Amino acid sequence: MLIKKYKAEKGVPWNTNGFGNKDPGGNRDKTLVKENHFDAVYPINLDFEVDSLSVGSYAVKDYLAAIKKKLPFNLRFERDNTDLKNTIIELSRKNATARELILGSVAALPEGWQVTVLPGYVILYFGKDEDYGSARFFWRKESGKVYEKDGPHLLAAEGDVEEELETE
């Protein structure tokens, strides 16, 4: 019944990360995703419309937490960073895409923040201007602007990567 309900509401062919959505943990962010892995076949949909957020001012930490609850994929960020606690962002409309909301958060933050869009989830960290092998793209705050950089999109063929360990 849930599949039928959400498929009808959002037209979702499980393109919003489907079953078994688990956060793989920080050490797995650089793992190359196999080309036949669910997340490679059905990458997250950043054009997913997030609705029912309250218009108003938020600390970026609270803003991201509210967005995270509404997303059909995982959004991981540094919860204890003072920038997230002290930077205020204004949400001016109730409905926006995940892309718009996440871009708004990095635009509001000071320089040095990076959003990494991986096939199955999104991470936002300070000072991690690293390239992740399976990243689709990055948004980086530099010189007062947010820049988009294409990711390497490396995918491992079956058998090229050791079997992933279960993480919590």
Describe this structure as you would to a colleague:
The protein has helices at residues 2-10, 38-41, 60-70, 82-86, 98-108, and strands at 33-34, 49-50, 56-59, 74-77, 88-91, 96-97, 113-117, 121-126, 137-142, 145-150, 155-156. A 5-stranded mixed beta sheet has the order 4-8-7-9-10, with helices on one face. Strands 1-11 form a two-stranded parallel ribbon. The protein has a two-stranded antiparallel sheet with strand order 2-6. The protein has 168 residues and is of the alpha+beta class.
Strand content: 25-35%
Structural class determined from secondary elements: alpha+beta
Number of DSSP-assigned strands? 11
User: How many alpha or pi helices?
Assistant: 5
Overall 3D shape: globular
Distance between the termini: 29 Å
Q: Output the radius of gyration.
A: 16 Å
> What profile does the largest beta sheet have?
5 strands, mixed
Largest sheet strand order: 4-8-7-9-10
Percent range for helical residues?
10-25%
Run of helices and strands: HEHEEHEHEEHEEEEE
The average pLDDT score comes to: 81
Task: State the low-pLDDT regions, or none.
Answer: 15-20, 161-168
